[in-house]
């Protein structure tokens, strides 16, 4: 009954343009030309990743000993590597690997970090202290070193890279969400919900979590760039994907011996990593300008 | 001031304690029998038995931890499986080169980063700003190992100006520290820009301009100085990024430092070396963060009052 009458009300007001945060966001985000172009680029990459096996012109694993280390040409647009494998096809398959590894690890890290951060900020007290001290401990293995330590324990391989990059993301997400939660907790509507006897879980997810979303969106975007760099660094160091896998970091690592004679083997995958990370960082910058009024500079 | 320092030092002690426990447990985290791992692949059953005895793996775990810490505090980090040398000897020749490398990277990155950030802020939305910010966002997106390889190709292979790596004195530090610092330089530049833009909108800057101070005096003496406080924090936090990056950069340049030792040891499963190297990196990072915190409180006395 209630909801019906509200709907009616909305219809009568809808003569005036209705305020919608999504529309508002879209309007502002489209003005961020650079970030907009970067998003189109990322969408294309996602498409390439999904369609990879269908659009790759050659088999990315199949060696061709008649065409070793060929420079870019009409038949091999990005040249061939030391086994005569088509680099473009390997790049296309690599897009799938890099994007899925980074998406998986960032989202897993986000989910776990968000839950911990929400609980930490909302309940405070000893729980807060335990979670924050644990994240301090994780933080004391700085940056890539935590991921390296985890891979050193679990052994090399792409799955372990995902685990490692996930764990190294958790404390950052937890801190970010905790901060936003502490701020949101002060709102009167949270107090109102509490005084009406709403259960903690409901308050956390219905009232506090939405307040953290905009900072989360910005951070996730930036984090995907970091994750791609971290995963490809681990592979480059020989701790990630196996040597025959068409992963970008692996391609660079196996190609480095041919830098002097066939530099495209190193330059092409490097450009792929660079442009992809750059695109995510540019989107992150654009999102920050739109979503976070505090850091607006113009 | 002294009270604040003591308080901060006391705060990191429990963290160091937990980190040491983690480091101690490292061997136990690895799937499999620790004694067999340490004895190596080709060890006989008797060897494994001896190692178990030697490491005290039959003792209760708290006793093992106490003897581990006892050894650690005496500078006994165990023996490398690969070389048979004491781990502390292997570290002693590699520790300082890594410190110099991070130090050089930090210095050039801070100077150039501050410069680019300040120029971008002063010429906001004009071409120097765009140029500076394009450089900065590219810098954080560049994979360090790729940049390193490109620099080797250009300066070592084609121009023959600098060594590709190794330990040929100061020259060997130039390319690695350039590679290592690129990311930090970019972050410092971006941060300086936004911090300076914020400061330039404050009342005392307006007052300074209104009373007819030269623009250069306003920016350098008043604005930049106050914008430095957050930049110091960021620079300090980024030190961890440098330590992580040094592992990659040292590998690219075959640099004789701690990072490359760590990676080589992982490939060889030289667990005693891996264990102590990770512990050393962690403690180094904790201490740097402590120093940054204290520096920060010197620059900004408000922090001490708040806490």
From TrEMBL, chain B:
Compartments annotated for it: namely: Cell membrane
Which keywords belong to this entry? Cell membrane, Ion transport, Membrane, Nickel, Nickel transport, Transmembrane, Transmembrane helix, Transport
Output the Gene Ontology terms for molecular function.
nickel cation transmembrane transporter activity
What are the residue boundaries of the ABC transmembrane type-1 domain, all occurrences included?
95-292
Concerning Pfam families, the annotation shows: BPD_transp_1, BPD_transp_1_N
Q: Can the keyword Metal-binding be found in this entry's annotation?
A: no
Question: Coiled-coil region(s) at which residues?
Answer: none
Transmembrane residues, as ranges?
12-30, 99-123, 130-152, 172-191, 228-253, 273-299
Annotated CDD domains? TM_PBP2
Q: Does the keyword Transport apply?
A: yes
User: What membrane topology is annotated for this entry?
Assistant: Multi-pass membrane protein
Q: Name one GO cellular component term.
A: plasma membrane
Which InterPro entries is this protein grouped with? BPD_transp_1_N (IPR045621), MetI-like (IPR000515), MetI-like_sf (IPR035906), Opp2B (IPR050045)
Role noted for this protein: Part of the ABC transporter complex GsiABCD involved in glutathione import. Probably responsible for the translocation of the substrate across the membrane.
Q: How does it assemble?
A: The complex is composed of two ATP-binding proteins (NikD and NikE), two transmembrane proteins (NikB and NikC) and a solute-binding protein (NikA).
Give the family from UniProt: Belongs to the binding-protein-dependent transport system permease family. OppBC subfamily.
**NCBIfam families found in the cross-reference section:** Opp2B
| Protein name, as recorded | Glutathione transport system permease protein GsiC
